[in-house]
Amino acid sequence: MAALSSTPAPEPLAPPPAQTDPAVDIQDLFGRYRRADRDSIEGVSLAVRKGALLGLLGPNGAGKTTLLNMLCALMRPRAGTIAVHGLRFAQAPDAYKDLIGLAPQSLALYPRLTARENLETFGRLSGLSGVRLRERVAFGLEFAGLQDLSHRRVETYSGGQQRRLNLATTLLPDPPVLVLDEPTVGIDPQSRHAIHENLRALNRAGKTIIYTSHYLDEVEQLCDEIAVLDGGRLIAQGAIGALLARFTGKRIELRFDPRSVEAAADILRTMAGVEDVTIASPQLALVTDDPYRRLPAILKRLAHARIRPLSVAVGARDLEQAFLALTGTQLRDEP
Q1: Residue 298: inside a domain
Q2: In CA terms, which of 44, 91, 164, 199 is 20 to 30 Å from 287?
Q3: DSSP code of 51?
């Protein structure tokens, strides 16, 4: 996909109303890595309601990992506050950590131990013992779908089985808030479906889930709310439906003969009201201030250049299109 514009992102969605008792309450947060010359997180305020299934999105380098590290007390904020169920880390570090279960993108398992032994080990590290440990290990094996394979070493498991077990270890102490960083990366569709179904069940049971993924289609299917970071700042937060509704009125998609796409893009970039132009040949997508008002002039200008689109559609059809409209189309190669 070629990027033809670096225009600023649109104004963010209005944030949801302030909550009196959110699961996660982040206020005016700043974060910077050692020896870095700028903040990775700049003034982020984000309230996540109890029982939300929130998709945390952003391009590479947007600050998602920094934000999650500070939320999970793996990194100290430079300024600002974070409270989970009303508790700040400085007030009671152990109790704060008990409120959050983190499943990192990198697998954290003992490959030469069996699934059961992994769960027992992580359960004891979480302070479980006796009957409670046995109950939670049984739950973890069922959650991961590994009851019949519990005696096998993890190193013999498929990638999907390891991902499911990795997530199960996070659930052992039964934390009210789950932070899941790319939990389905690189796995088969069946494992992804199983994880999604289990997460929906946990969410229905009251778990608050913060979910990051580069698979925007699965975020759209799984989550009910999103927050979008770009350049270390929060640029949108709200219901997915509200985000799509906002951009339904801003996007025009035209389909051309592939030989005409580049010429059409060169013309349309110069037109009034066109905020962004993206090529995915033979399609060309525009973000405009008012597509229905601009469309006649666009078609007239193309006709004058003897370029005729094969089809025209108005509106953002999915989360990926809305995400590109918010963050722009330029590639981001920062870590």
Answers
A1: yes
A2: 44
A3: T
Residue pLDDT, tens place only, 39-86: 899 999 999 999 999 999 998 888 999 999 999 999 999 999 999 999
Tokens representing 207 are: 């778990």
What's the domain count of the chain? 2
Return the H-helix or E-strand segment holding 240: helix 240-248
Q: Are residues 279 and 193 in the same domain?
A: no
Q: Evaluate whether 7 touches 326 at the Cβ level (below 8 Å).
A: no
Cβ–Cβ under 8 Å, residues 195 and 162: no
Tokens 């979008």 -> residue: 228
235 and 288 housed in the same domain: no
* Bridge pairing between strands 208-212 and 53-57: parallel
Which 3 state secondary structure label does DSSP give 244? helix
Residue 134 and residue 257 in one domain: no
Residue closest to 327 by CA, chosen among 221, 216, 231: 231
What are the structure tokens assigned to 276, written together? 């962004």
- Residues near 126 by Cβ (< 8 Å), separated by ≥ 6? 172, 173
Tokens 């600002």 sit on residue: 80
pLDDT digits over 183-209, tens only? 988 888 888 898 999 999 999 999 999
DSSP β-bridge partners for residue 35 = none
Three-state SS for 260-328 is: HHHHHHHHHCCCCCEEEEEEECCEEEEEECCHHHHHHHHHHHHHHCCCCCCEEEECCCCHHHHHHHHHC
Q: Has residue 1 been placed in a domain? A: no
CATH number for the domain harbouring residue 301: 3.30.70.100
Q: At 229, list the tokens.
A: 């970071």
Does a structural domain hold residue 202? yes
Q: Which domain holds residue 33?
A: 14-239
- For 311, list phi and psi in degrees, rounded to 5: -155, 155
Tokens of 322: 């809305």
Please tell me the pTM assigned to this model: 0.75
